[in-house]
Specification:
- The protein has one helix and nine strands.
- The protein is mainly β.
- It has one domain: Cystine Knot Cytokines, subunit B, CATH 2.10.90.10.
Length: 133
């Protein structure tokens, strides 16, 4: 009986993970990404001490409902385009795996999303170049 219960719990957890079809998600979710980070150091003599590697980070991913309403004033529309962005983050310091032995600081700071939500783009903390933010 005990082995069956464990197997059912493992199967249920596996099914829950596999049930998310990333091509059809209509929500804003936290998702794990591999970030390639580089932190070269130039010595006083001009030598470059390389430091880089892939780091797993949690970021926001997904879709948000948007709309436009006709308006009589230029630009003749009222836009409502929220973006999927983080609502809570946590700062984390990681050691990059491929660093020169004499590199003075092989650590890199990343920010993990703890929660994501659909919000208007704010250029204080998000890259909004194509969203008139």
């Amino acid at each position: 009986m005990w082995k069956r219960c464990v197997w059912l719990v493992v199967l249920a957890a596996f099914s829950a993970v596999c049930a998310v079809d990333l091509d059809s998600v209509t929500a804003c979710l936290v998702r794990e990404y591999n970030l390639f980070a580089q932190k070269p150091h130039v010595t006083p003599t001009g030598d470059v001490l390389e430091c880089s590697g892939f780091v797993k980070v949690n970021s926001c991913w997904g879709r948000c409902d948007s709309s436009e309403i006709a308006d009589y004033k230029i630009p003749f529309k009222i836009s409502n385009h929220p973006v999927c962005t983080y609502s809570r983050v946590q700062k984390r310091r990681v050691r990059l795996p491929n660093c020169h032995p004499e590199h003075p600081d092989p650590y890199y700071v990343v920010y993990d999303a703890l929660a994501c939500s659909c919000r208007y783009c704010n250029s204080k903390y998000t890259s909004c170049e194509t969203l008139n933010g």
